[in-house]
Design goal:
- The chain is of the alpha/beta class and 216 residues long.
- The strands form 3 sheets. Strands 1, 4, 5, 6, 7, 8, 9 and 10 form an 8-stranded mixed β-sheet that branches.
- The protein has 6 helices and 12 strands.
- The longest helix has 20 residues, at 28-47.
- Helix 1 (12-20) runs antiparallel to helix 2 (28-47).
């Protein structure tokens, strides 16, 4: 199942437009904050899909019956660009467990590259709701690599994959290389073009560099 936020206008439009805007995105603190706020919006939307049960809450004047989530959550993010987005989820799902994945492009002299896995820190994920996020879904290879590495820690009850901007090619790659029945995909926008170097057009540039500075 794919949930595409750009099909319905909301305040999310403003945050994504600022991420894309080459004048606004020069402010790295604002760029990180917009990633975080978008994480909060997706967290709220995902919360509507969780399981709930009634709880009695004692107030100073009596009791209130409230429906509270009973799911155990794990928030997993691909470093480094995914860290502010991760924090947005954690702001809302403050009792969630956390996982972090390092995946990067290893470039060759001819300009081609491979996606390589570097690091994974994760608790067991058996029978838990997994939220896997990365701001950009370009070729889709790093997301599939991250997802498969997490499956080594167990079988989640369901997985939500979240990206702010995706390419059509990346969405199709994810569909073909994962079990779509076990995954819900949440996207802010889907762009048409993916360059030979796997950059999304119009996209927004390198999210990691914009959030934390250029790397060598």
């Amino acid at each position: 199942m794919i949930n595409l936020s750009e099909r319905e206008n909301s305040i999310l439009n403003q945050f994504i437009s600022e991420l894309r805007n080459k004048e606004v995105q020069t402010d790295s603190m604002r760029f990180r904050r917009n990633l975080e706020r978008i994480g909060e919006i997706f967290a709220y939307e995902i919360s509507k899909t969780l399981s709930y049960e009634e709880n009695k809450i004692k107030t100073p004047l009596g009791e209130s019956n409230m429906q509270l989530s009973v799911n155990k959550l794990i928030i997993a993010s691909v470093m480094r660009a995914g860290l502010p987005l991760h924090q947005g989820f954690l702001n809302y799902f403050d009792n969630a467990e956390n996982a972090f994945i390092s995946a990067f492009r290893k470039y060759h002299k001819d300009g081609s590259f491979d996606i390589q896995f570097g690091y994974l820190a994760s608790p067991k994920i058996d029978d838990k709701i997994l939220i896997l996020s990365d701001p950009m879904l370009a070729s889709g290879a790093s997301m599939v690599l991250a997802y498969n590495s997490l499956l080594e820690k167990g079988t989640p009850k369901h997985t939500h994959i979240v990206s702010i901007i995706a390419s059509k090619e990346g969405v199709e790659y994810l569909r073909k290389n994962t079990d779509s029945k076990k995954i819900t995909l949440w996207l802010g926008a889907v762009d048409d073009e993916l360059t030979a170097k796997a950059y999304i057009v119009p996209g927004l540039g390198d999210a990691g560099d914009l959030a934390y500075g250029a790397k060598e």
